[in-house]
Specification:
The protein has a single domain, classed as Protein Transport Mog1p, Chain A. Helices cover about 35% and strands about 30% of the residues. The strands form 2 sheets. It has a 7-stranded antiparallel sheet with strand order 3-4-5-9-8-7-6. A hairpin with a 2-residue loop joins strand 3 and strand 4. The chain starts with a helix and ends in a 5-residue tail after the last helix.
C-alpha cells in the first residue's frame, strides 16, 4: 500500500512539473518586459500594450489602472486574494463566476493577466514567476491599486454630479419664459 502511495505521489509531482515547464513557450515583449506565454496562446495578437489570444490577455495596465482595476474591483461578484508568486506580489481576482485576473508588478510596471477560469493555474503562476522581478515594493504595489480604486470611485461620483440634462441648452431665455424652474 505504501509503495502505491509513493508511486502516486511521484506521478503527481512529475505531472505538475511537466505542466509548468516553460522552456518551450513563446516569448513576447510588452512595454519593455519579456514574458513566456503557454503554447496554447501562441497565436495571439499584439494590441497597444497588450497581447490577446481568445480567452487570455496579458496587458500593461499602468496608464489604465484606475479604469481597469477600479472597475473590476467594484464588481459585486468579486472574490479577491493577495498572493506571492516567486517574489511577485499578486492581487488575484475571480469574478462573474467564470473569469480571473492577476495584477502583478514586473520591473517598474504593473501587468494584468485575464483568463477564463476560476482558479490560479500552474501556467498563470509560471508566466508571473518567469517575468522580471519587480522594482517597486510590495507596499508601493498595493498602494497603487488602492489609489486606482479610490480614483475610480471618485470618477464615478463625478460622472453622476456632472450629468446636467440642460448643459447643451443654448437659449436659456426661451426656457425661462415657461416659468420658474
Amino acid at each position: 500500500m505504501k509503495r502505491i502511495l509513493i508511486i502516486l505521489v511521484a506521478f503527481l509531482m512529475i505531472s505538475t512539473v511537466a505542466a509548468t515547464d516553460s522552456s518551450h513557450w513563446k516569448e513576447i515583449s510588452l512595454k519593455g518586459h519579456d514574458f513566456k506565454i503557454p503554447l496554447e496562446y501562441e497565436n495571439g495578437k499584439f494590441m497597444t500594450y497588450s497581447y490577446e489570444s481568445g480567452s487570455f490577455t496579458l496587458a500593461a495596465v499602468d496608464e489604465i489602472l484606475e479604469a481597469n482595476y477600479g472597475f473590476i474591483a467594484e464588481n459585486p461578484t468579486v472574490i479577491e486574494d493577495n498572493l506571492t508568486i516567486a517574489g511577485h506580489p499578486v492581487k488575484y481576482i475571480k469574478y462573474n463566476g467564470q473569469w480571473s485576473r492577476a495584477y502583478f508588478p514586473t520591473g517598474d510596471s504593473i501587468y494584468c493577466i485575464m483568463w477564463k477560469g476560476t482558479s490560479m493555474t500552474p501556467e498563470i503562476e509560471e508566466i508571473i514567476a518567469t517575468s522580471a522581478m519587480p522594482s517597486i515594493s510590495i507596499d508601493a504595489f498595493y498602494g497603487k491599486l488602492t489609489k486606482a480604486l479610490e480614483g475610480y470611485r471618485e470618477s464615478q461620483r463625478n460622472v453622476y454630479y456632472d450629468m446636467d440634462p440642460y448643459d447643451d441648452i443654448e437659449d436659456w431665455e426661451e426656457y425661462e419664459a415657461y416659468g420658474d424652474w
